[in-house]
């Protein structure tokens, strides 16, 4: 059996690709929700600021279409 090294399979054109941004479970949930919403609706990931047990934690906010 031949020894294979991961570096042997890396393609030069992939080195120019920017690394993806940090993805959290909340951001992935927002992306999934955004895909099924009607046009004009938006989902935002924000830090909870209102005085609840979730203060400072990420929350999803659904934005209605304007107009």
Nutshell version of this structure?
This protein is α+β, with helices and mostly antiparallel strands. The chain is 18% helix and 18% strand. The termini are far apart.
How would you describe what is shown here?
The chain has 67 residues and is α+β, with helices and mostly antiparallel strands. The protein contains one helix and two strands; from the N terminus they run αββ. It has a domain at 25-63. It is flat and about 30 Å long. The protein has a two-stranded antiparallel ribbon. It has one helix at residues 25-36; strands at residues 42-47, 58-63.
- Count of beta strands: 2
Shape, principal axes of CA atoms: flat
Along the chain, the helix and strand elements come as: HEE
Biggest β-sheet, characterized? 2 strands, antiparallel
What helical percentage do the residues reach? 10-25%
Q: Which range does the strand content fall in? A: 15-25%
| Widest sheet: strand ordering | 1-2
Cα-atom radius of gyration: 20 Å
Low-confidence stretches: 4-19
- Tell me the structural class: alpha+beta
Distance between the termini: 66 Å
Instruction: Provide the residue-averaged pLDDT.
Output: 74
Number of helices: 1
